[in-house]
Amino acid sequence: MKFVALVSGGKDSVFSIAKCLAHGHELVALANLFPPPEGPEELDSFMFQSAGAAAIECLAECVGVPLVRAPMSGHSGHQGLHYTPTEGDEVEDLHALLARVQAQFPEVQAVASGAVLSTYQRTRVESVCERLGLQSLAFLWRYDQAQLLREMAEYGLEAVLVKVSSQGLSPHKHLGKSIAELRPLFARLHAQHGFHVAGEGGEYETLTLDAPFFRRRLVLDETEGVIHADDVYTPVGLLHIRRCHTEAKEGG
């Protein structure tokens, strides 16, 4: 099937594309919801990652397919597990975005997402897909998180932390570090206090710099660590991306 991929730039949304390609599906476009320029960089969204949004256009250049984007409201008006259409809810932002994708690319038949553990997110994507006559592709659903990180490493996906929000992670030390480098730390934190090693408890968010199916590589030229909450136990920090570019891959 021909599909559009919902991307935040994070490891899961990118690895879900890799899984779809491995199953023989054809990537047509990327779709992304981003924070409005006049608002804060990090929205309190139940559905969508906004950290790293400044690099999405470069990431689309790396993938080599068209990108369709729209601002998101960050408002979760309907918070029940089973979603019904609700005016003003951020899920309706997704519905409008995918309707635009259908108008521009009528050949699209399916939507790929990187949902791993959140039933809240998965059922909302499925609700939008059903309303638009599209099929939901969620190959990472209910993956064992340690296995997921192992498979990403074996596949050659490179991603760095662009948000931390967990005991044991420091904005000063860990923002911008690769998930490959931090896997041993994640394992220790899991043993100590149940840390979700793939970040499914909101412990961290990532930005993907490279993957085997990328045509180019994403390079972060200038970044700044921004502290959102200097809590002694659970500090929250973002990696603000000031400048980035893409470059040719070795052998490409």
Structure explained in plain terms:
With 252 residues, the chain is α/β, with parallel strands linked by helices. It has seven helices and nine strands; from the N terminus they run βαβαβαβαβαβααβββ. The chain has helices at residues 11-22, 56-63, 90-104, 119-132, 145-155, 171-174, 179-193, and strands at residues 2-6, 26-34, 67-71, 110-112, 135-137, 158-165, 204-210, 216-229, 236-248. A five-stranded parallel sheet has the order 3-2-1-4-5, sandwiched between helices. Strand 1 (2-6), helix 1 and strand 2 (26-34) form a beta-alpha-beta unit. The longest helix has 15 residues, at 90-104. The protein starts with a strand and ends with a strand.
Notable characteristics:
alpha/beta; four-stranded antiparallel beta sheet; 9 strands; 31% helix; 27% strand
List the helices and strands and how they pair.
Blueprint: E1 2-6, H1 11-22, E2 26-34, H2 56-63, E3 67-71, H3 90-104, E4 110-112, H4 119-132, E5 135-137, H5 145-155, E6 158-165, H6 171-174, H7 179-193, E7 204-210, E8 216-229, E9 236-248
Parallel strand pairs: 1-2, 1-4, 2-3, 4-5
Antiparallel strand pairs: 6-7, 6-9, 8-9
In angstroms, what separates the terminal alpha carbons? 27 Å
- Which percent band covers the strand fraction? 25-35%
Strand segment tally: 9
* Structural class label: alpha/beta
- Residue stretches low in confidence (pLDDT < 50, at least 5 long) are none
Strand order of the largest sheet: 3-2-1-4-5
Q: How many DSSP H or I helices?
A: 7
The oligomeric state of the chains shown is single chain
Proportion of helical residues: 25-40%
